[in-house]
Amino acid sequence: MPLADTSLAATDPELVAIADRFADDVERDAPLAPRLRGLLRVAAVVATGGTAVLRVELDDALAAGVTPVELKEVLYQAVPYAGLGRAVDALVVANELLADHDVELPLPGQATVTPATRAADGLAVQKRIVGADAVNAMHANAPADEQHVQRALAAHCFGDHYTRGGLDVPTRELVTLALLVALGGTDPQVAGHVRANLHVGNDRATLVAVVTQLLPVVGYPRTLNALRAVDDIAPFPAEEES
Fold first, then answer.
1. Domain segments of the chain: what residues?
2. Is the dihedral of CA 93, 111, 127, 66 positive or negative?
3. Concatenated DSSP letters for 221-237?
4. Are the CB atoms for 98 and 68 separated by under 8 Å?
5. pTM score
6. Which long-range CB contacts under 8 A does 20-27 form with residues at least 24 apart?
7. Among 34, 25, 23, 35, CA closest to 69
8. Lowest CB count within 10 Å: 55, 63, 164, 187, which one?
9. For the chain, which residues score pLDDT lower than 50?
10. Architecture category of domain 3-110+164-241 in CATH
């Protein structure tokens, strides 16, 4: 996290030095492509509600090659996970930053569904990502008075978001994982999206690198909980441990 670009460089130089060393350690031990790292750290900061550092992370992501469309897609995708409050606060910061960069708003639309198709298209993509058996079980096991939540999840999380352009599905799954890890208290959902990431081609090494890169943003407890889910679902090969 580039705290050297904030007022903390003058008021809290020792903390900035500690944070810089921490970031260097993480980058050395679990490197990610700068563009992907930028996307995921923005997602995590949004989920934690860290508005003071969000502008710096957004600027850093743009410098790493993240496009304005990609940034907006991360912030839009935060809505069903982090909620409107945090996502809208983040959008206000992002829009101010993009205006400072002379980016014309609104950006080109990325929607591919209509009000008439979002539910069916969302359910189809949910089954493709999560697995048809798992989705069918969620619907079958939900009480009658909660079936509407399962329908909304398919139409909103997947129909309104995963069908959009701007980011491919494997990247969206990593963004969702970053949001969930950063929120905390979401262990069942983290486990479900570890499985979903594996379904769409993100392997254990990628997941470990992603969760490690989130460590400075989310802290050790949430990171260790996420790594436990990775270990349970995609364990380290025993023959490599020796």
1. 3-110+164-241, 111-163
2. negative
3. HHHHHHHHHHHHHSPPP
4. yes
5. 0.94
6. 22/215, 22/216, 23/216, 26/212, 26/213, 26/215, 26/216, 27/213
7. 35
8. 63
9. 242
10. Up-down Bundle (1.20)
Cα–Cα distance measured from residue 173 to residue 167, given in angstroms and rounded to the nearest whole number? 10
Q: CA angle, corner 106, sides to 101 and 110, nearest 5?
A: 115
CB 124 within 8 A of CB 84: no
Q: Which tokens in the block code for residue 172?
A: 């969206």
Q: What is the largest CA-CA distance in the chain?
A: 58
Do the beta carbons of residue 3 and residue 57 sit within 8 Å?
Answer: no
Contact 180, 189 (CB under 8 A): yes
Structure tokens at 19: 């944070």
Name the CA radius of gyration of the chain, rounded.
18
Alpha-carbon distances of 64 from 23, 28, 51, 79, rounded to whole Å: 16, 17, 20, 24
Query: 175-208 pLDDT, tens per residue?
Result: 999 999 999 999 999 999 999 999 999 999 999 9
Q: How far, in Å, CA of 45 to CA of 165, rounded?
A: 23
Q: Give CA–CA dist 89/46, Å, rounded.
A: 9
